[in-house]
Amino acid sequence: MPKYDRILLKLSGEALAGQAGFGIDAQRINALAAELAQVAADGIQLGVVVGGGNFFRGVAAAARHMDRVTADYMGMLATVINALALQDALENQGVRTRVMTAIEMRQVAEPYIRRRAIQHLEKGRLVVLAGGTSNPYFSTDTAATLRALEIRAQVIGKATRVDGVYDRDPLKHPDAVFYERISYAEVLAKGLGVMDGAAVAMCRDNQLPIVVFNLNVPGNILRMSKGEPVGTLIC
The pTM is what? Predict the structure, then answer.
């Protein structure tokens, strides 16, 4: 039996871009959908919050001379593009999927309503949650935490390019120290940029564990969902 009955997975937009770093890589998104299909087939209820950094990020250099609020809204719309692409890939895998957006756009997705999202999960549908929180100045990490708490997820799975939490960026510092387990307080005090501070503080205040793991290792999503030791546990 899986350790978790319901999880919230946070994916970056870059996770869908593959090696190109921009846009959507068909091979990458199909491989990701196949892994998510394994989780769904195991009976685990799965919500996914996806970022939009493969198209636009409100705090990126491209937005430097833009109004911050406008740039953030553009980033939220980018998450909807990614959510629709992920829905298409998942349905090609036979996974019943619903896209729900915090910014209402009924022609392409359902508006996010908490009770309806929970009903979808209980009926075995995978729910992709897009549009951030619908508010500027909030990251998709914060959106993921908010949605996880709302749908009563038991854990947040934060997918990254590295094996977990380190004291420094391991891609730049080969001698970086890896943490198998670390407290919310240590993450905040040491400024470890694995998630933004508001998201970590929300998890701390509500005792919601975070598992940070490497998305590029095949099978890691399923291992994390089953509660197997993978990546770093923040609790």
Answer: 0.93
Beta-carbon contacts of 1 under 8 Å, excluding residues fewer than 6 positions away, are none
Domain count of the fold of the chain: 1
CB 48 within 8 A of CB 36: yes
Q: What is the CATH number of the domain that holds 68?
A: 3.40.1160.10
pLDDT in tens, 137-192: 999 999 999 999 999 999 999 998 899 999 988 888 888 999 999 999 999 999 88
Domain contains 1: no
Rounded CA-CA distance 200/186 in Å is 10
Q: Which two tokens stand for residue 91?
A: 């349905």
DSSP 174-190: TTPPEESEE-HHHHHHT
Helices (H), 140-215: 140-150, 184-189, 197-205
- In sequence order, the β-bridge partners of residue 179 are 165
Q: Are 129 and 112 in contact (CB under 8 A)?
A: yes
Residue 135 bridge partners (DSSP): none
Q: Residues with Cβ < 8 Å from 83, sequence gap 6 or more? A: 50, 99, 101, 109, 128, 129, 130
Answer whether residue 60 is part of any domain.
yes
Q: What is the pLDDT of residues 2-59, one digit of tens each?
A: 689 999 999 998 888 888 778 899 999 999 999 999 999 999 999 999 999 888 876 6
**Distance of CA 56 to CAs 16, 33, 53, 81, Å?**
13, 22, 5, 11
Could you tell me if residue 217 is inside a domain? yes
